[in-house]
Protein: Toprim domain-containing protein
Organism: Acidithiobacillus sulfurivorans
Amino acid sequence: MDQPPPDPDVVAQCHVIVQEAARIYQRELSAPVAQAYLKKRQITEAAVERFALGYADGSSPVYKACVSRGSTQGEQQESLYETAGVITQKPSRSSPGVKEWADRFRNRLIFPIRDEGGSYCGMGGRYLSSPSSFGKKDVRPKYINTPETPVYHKSQMLYGLYENQSAIRSTGKAVLVEGYMDVIGLFQGGIENTVASCGTALTDAQLTLLLQFTSDILLCFDGDAPGRAAALKAAEKCLEYLQDTVRIRVLFLPEGMDPYDLMQTPDGPAVFDRLAMNAVPVLDVLMQTLQSESPVLDRESADRFLEEFGYRLEKVPGETTRDAWRGSAEALVAKYRPDLSRLTPLMPGLGNAKTTAPVTVARPSVSRPPDRKTKALSESFMERAVWWLFRLPWEIAAPIWSALPVAYLVYDERESPATKQLAMVLRSLCTPIHTSSQASEETLDMRCFQTSGARAILEKVDRQVDFVQVFNTMSAENQKMELAAIVQKITEQAQRRRLAFIAGIAERDGFGALTDEEQTFLRRGGVKIEKIEGMDTIGDEVRRMEI
């Protein structure tokens, strides 16, 4: 049964009390133990001011402020302060069996938590050893939070949202981390569009709240096993929020490091920027997890993979996003499901270019691709093509890449890892968000679609110093000409491979087994159709042609 809404007067008073407590603790931040911790963690004055940090010693100054309001209202005031979550009752040291009032937060660095409007709702506290406990083992929880109150609901709060919402709006992006210190560390590293989930697993309420400020979210997790488990859980949670205009990616930090630790290293901000560029879509996280848990090795495992991934895609509301990733999944298992290798994704074009109509799905009676050999482009050539995709500004590259029939790359994906990465990225770019002016505001922000395979390719080509130097010395016009030549070469190869595939189907099953579009494609490709005893067949010269 739903709880009745809290009394507005109580809500207002709770906000005032939490703000009062936060300001009392801010005044106590000059305490030696607090200053020692700030120095040890290299927390700057700018961060202290931005996030209104404070310190709660063991003297319960907030409870004393409560008492000072007057003895006649003492009991009522104590009850209200307890409702606001700033004081509590604890066992008395001097009188066993008796409880006494005290501040909830004692010997802790205080992180006030405000809602998006700036109202104080609650706080988190990081335990700092009191002078009397130096040298002893800490037994208290490292972090505690305000309990559930009329104004503080942990699963609905985002730490830093009020302080950093201006940066989130101006950049159009938000980074979601796990803890208070992560937000502060990134802020000190110049990354201000950051919020934290207050120590909870990502919730629907938090996602809904953050999407009110941006449609581009980067989830940041540690690279260890718990971090990857949290990322997988978050990825599952995000599925039903993936509208075509929403982008949610996952960034994995180096193992053993959290964002604050990373920012303390000399090149921390630069490393974080590179990791952000290499962040992968949440659907990629799920796809890779499914592959690792149940490798696709045969027709049965391919069917199981498609079923499991398809179940997740059903939760995605964005039709274009759903279709693009379904095409990627089908291309992934095409080696074991060749009937799917002939499917054409619904968005074969890119950017603002006109897209062609989808090709009719071929019959499932085609159980395997024909054994027709074609001369493939070298893997090094395709790796450099992937590198060009990410290194050339998108406003220059988009019209050129849009000429490539991405749907036809499926015939090379089974044999070329680089082609597979290229096709996956290009398909991912076929969403409305990338047809807007946002796409031209920075150098291929679509790097967000990189997979681990694409990252490896970029790093490999980056080490080819001579090639990179030549690229850097080329004029913009020459770069366009070079890219056009690359795309033309890939286009011709993709068309040859598709032509060979369809010709092989016709050889085996007869010309009538092809769709109208496939028959037209063969004729336009120069394949002659001969009549033998009233049946259409492929001329002998096709079997000998070098495709």
